[in-house]
Amino acid sequence: MAEENTESKPIQRWVPLEANPEVWNEIIHKAGVDPKYNYVDVLGFDPELLAMLPPVVEAVVFLFPITEAYEKFKDEEEAHLIKLEQSISPDVVFFKQTIANACGMIALLHSVASNDDEIVGPGLFNDIIEQAKNMSVDERVDLLENSKELAQLHASAATEGQTAAPCSDDSIDLHFICFIEVDQHLYELDGRKLFPINHGKCTNLVESATKVMKQYMARDPNETNFNAIALCKTED
């Protein structure tokens, strides 16, 4: 009888992306996203600053520090939702993060994958999303881990930010997640979590996402390293 192979595969480590809309726009446009759609900085979370965003917002990407308070909340939230068995739309495409420091790319994929019909044209992202739709979450892990094109696209972009790129082995305590609206519900998509989080009815993506982002900030009032960018339709 052959011995079962119990060796775990080595963890891939990427160089982190910075929260720079120019870098993110270069990634999505190379990968087939319509040039009418671009990431822009969210200048602040007050109503007058949020009102400066373009009227059509497809996704909000949030960058925040991973702290003890956050990790405690995350564990409690997952335990609660496992018991609750929340309802998740079949149109939500969720990717689990297994590649170290890939949270930027995962959030970026999440921002386009569930409403890709309007946004994503022929190219790498369309290929990945169309395959992923018929896959389990674990099969999607293999899809991303085995995509050399995605790794190359990420690597070229990670060195183009305004600040010096950290090494792939550096310990990074900042994390990207994504908020989208599907079937009039707000979803939080975080590759470190077991599943999407359904935050309930949503009539305005920016307002609903801001409420959740402010909850993140309230859990860690001594932290200041919070940032957001939004994927918007910037041209008609």
What would you note in describing this structure?
- The chain has one domain: Peptidase C12, ubiquitin carboxyl-terminal hydrolase (Ubiquitin C-terminal Hydrolase UCH-l3).
- Helices cover 38% and strands 17% of the residues.
- The chain contains nine helices and six strands.
- Keywords: Hydrolase, Protease, Thiol protease, Ubl conjugation pathway.
- Pfam families: Peptidase_C12 (PF01088).
- InterPro entries: Papain-like_cys_pep_sf (IPR038765), Peptidase_C12_UCH (IPR001578), Peptidase_C12_UCH_sf (IPR036959), UCH_AS (IPR057254).
Number of helices: 9
N/C terminus separation = 64 Å
CATH architecture: 3-Layer(aba) Sandwich
Please state how the strands of the largest beta sheet are arranged side by side: 1-6-2-3-4-5
Radius of gyration: 17 Å
**Mean pLDDT across residues:** 90
Beta-strand share of residues: 15-25%
